[in-house]
């Protein structure tokens, strides 16, 4: 339950947003509908890894394919299953009316944090995005993380992001531009004003070199793709790194090899899809480790049978899959 006032949001977020946060896919059943039982099971599985929180209906959650009523249903299921486990709701949309409806729903469900990206399709200039986010933020007292991603069609640089984090209840930025210069500059220039989070581990070594500290991995799918309840090395590494302790031995011995496989397939899937977020990859990977996913909704295309076989074989060879699991 929200326990801060609007002008306290930034201070509140410093203690709320820490360590490893996950990103949930939206599992679909054989009829293409939200798989509620599967989603609830996925949440319990991710919680068992020691992950500190998660976001629903984000990019990996295929928010663009969900109706507003489906997004509200998803938010209810996630919050109901999460209980006291921190969760955040994604409210990006091109329709202000729908954003307000999603925000009202999030508030009624006791969400404490929203995430929002640029209004895609109709926006290409940073000043348009800034004014849009200002208007949205004026109409809620909930804390907001801004999502800086090329998937929305407009990437903001650190100067533009400074205008975003100056907004009273914008507590930080998920800086997922895939532009290292923007990520580093955002940390250096804005990190004392708001929480800056780049969703990849390289940022910790860079921060150690340049004198900044990322306090939260907000958020990625690496926890449930790399870890198991018996070996949560990735979550352990992130929870240490976000406190300023970079465990290089843990990373090299337990994470490096599977990270290399992930980077290879992430790049391939993005390239094959012309730059689209690799939802198909992550959903199939989730199925391989025993989670519920279902196929992505059109227009996202599922992985080919050959790619599925090759990925599965690589993970089995690495010893990261139960070979008796049939997917």
Keywords for this structure?
single chain; 327 residues; alpha/beta; TIM Barrel
Which stretches are poorly predicted, pLDDT < 50 over at least 5 residues?
none
Q: Tell me the name of the CATH class.
A: Alpha Beta
Give the amount of beta strand, in percent: 5-15%
Helical percent range? 40-55%
Going across the major beta sheet, what is the strand order? Answer: 7-6-5-4-3-2-1-8
N-to-C series of helices and strands: HEHEHEHEHEHEHEHEHHHHH
Topology:
Layout: H1 9-16, E1 19-23, H2 36-48, E2 53-56, H3 68-82, E3 87-90, H4 96-108, E4 113-117, H5 126-138, E5 143-148, H6 158-165, E6 170-175, H7 180-190, E7 195-197, H8 202-210, E8 216-220, H9 222-226, H10 233-241, H11 248-272, H12 279-288, H13 305-318
Parallel strand pairs: 1-2, 1-8, 2-3, 3-4, 4-5, 5-6, 6-7
Helix pairs in contact: 2-3, 3-4, 5-6, 6-7, 7-8, 11-13
Describe this protein's structure.
With 327 residues, the chain is of the alpha/beta class. The chain has one domain: TIM Barrel (Alpha-Beta Barrel). The protein has 13 helices and eight strands. Strands 7-6-5-4-3-2-1-8 form an eight-stranded parallel β-sheet. Helix 3 runs parallel beside helix 4. The longest helix is centred in the last third of the chain and has 25 residues, at 248-272. The termini are far apart.
